[in-house]
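sry for the spam today, last one i promise. struct tokens for design, 308 residues
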């Protein structure tokens, strides 16, 4: 099983509280952006709980069938109350259920999930008899659930029942102290028998300053790609994936020629006039802004009949 890695204050606080949370049967709501490790937190809680001997049951709520969601989750009974099909929640008796992307639960079944959370019981299709199961619920979302509640897309009572214990995972850009640690770990993991990928100082600074919108998952995928394509190499900043390069190395073309073309003389005239305006008429300063000598500027001013 993978372990949660981090030494930043935000992560160490979460790691310190997980054993205490795991020993409880309280429901947990894990929030965080995509790729921050919500499923890993759920797996850790299950592995440290009294239910560890049973397999963790993961249900991706966004991938539930468009029809018969209730049947898939709970099951069906015959007229005598005998269970003819045991849904995934009932089948998880004695274990932990992880409801991933819980914000995608259809409104039509949220009330039944709430009842299951509160009393461990539900009414299956085909019978009025209640069925009971001993299941712990962990849930995760990358959505803003309070906003979903306010918009009427998620039940407020279910939200409050899920977040008995809230865990909010910070994005990687807010725990930059962990980036170097994670890079070293995943590069070692993916190196296999090859020499490790190394970074120049500028490349390492670029990776530290990159925003990592895909969070730890993006970093892991990046390390796998670099270990595969550049084994044992010392990578420079311009050899990193383009989005991770410093702005100066991404492109040496600050201006892009439009497909329709341009009037080069008019562009040059406009730039000279802008430089003179920014420099308050100081020709030496205007020349520096344009990256040319003062004599070249004077020549072009005369060419375009610019007097000041």
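last one done:
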């Amino acid at each position: 099983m993978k372990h949660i890695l981090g030494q930043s204050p935000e992560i160490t606080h979460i790691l310190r509280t997980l054993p205490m949370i795991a020993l409880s049967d309280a429901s947990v709501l894990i929030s965080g952006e995509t790729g921050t490790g919500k499923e890993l937190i759920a797996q850790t809680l299950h592995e440290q709980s009294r239910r560890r001997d049973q397999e963790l049951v993961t249900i991706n709520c966004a991938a539930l069938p468009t029809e018969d969601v209730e049947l898939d989750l709970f099951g069906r009974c015959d007229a005598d109350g005998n269970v003819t099909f045991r849904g995934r929640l009932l089948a998880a008796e004695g274990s932990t259920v992880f409801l991933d992307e819980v914000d995608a639960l259809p409104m039509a079944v949220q009330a039944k999930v709430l009842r299951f959370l509160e009393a461990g019981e539900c009414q299956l299709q085909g019978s009025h008899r209640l069925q009971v199961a001993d299941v712990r619920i962990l849930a995760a979302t990358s959505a803003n659930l309070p906003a979903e509640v306010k918009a009427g897309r998620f039940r407020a009572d279910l939200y409050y029942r899920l977040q008995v214990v809230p865990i909010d995972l910070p994005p990687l850009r807010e725990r930059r102290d962990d980036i170097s640690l994670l890079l070293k770990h995943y590069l070692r993991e993916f190196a296999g028998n090859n020499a490790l990928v190394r970074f120049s100082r500028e490349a390492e600074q670029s990776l530290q300053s990159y925003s990592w919108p895909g969070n730890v998952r993006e970093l892991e995928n990046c390390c796998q790609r670099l270990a595969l394509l550049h084994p044992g190499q010392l990578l420079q900043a311009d050899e990193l994936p383009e989005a991770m390069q410093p702005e100066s190395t991404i492109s040496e073309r600050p201006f892009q020629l439009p497909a329709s073309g341009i009037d080069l003389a008019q562009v040059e005239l406009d730039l000279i006039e802008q430089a003179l305006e920014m420099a308050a008429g100081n020709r030496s300063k205007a020349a520096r802004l344009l990256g040319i000598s003062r004599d070249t500027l004077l020549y072009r001013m005369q060419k375009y009949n610019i007097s000041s």
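The mean pLDDT is 88. ok im logging off now
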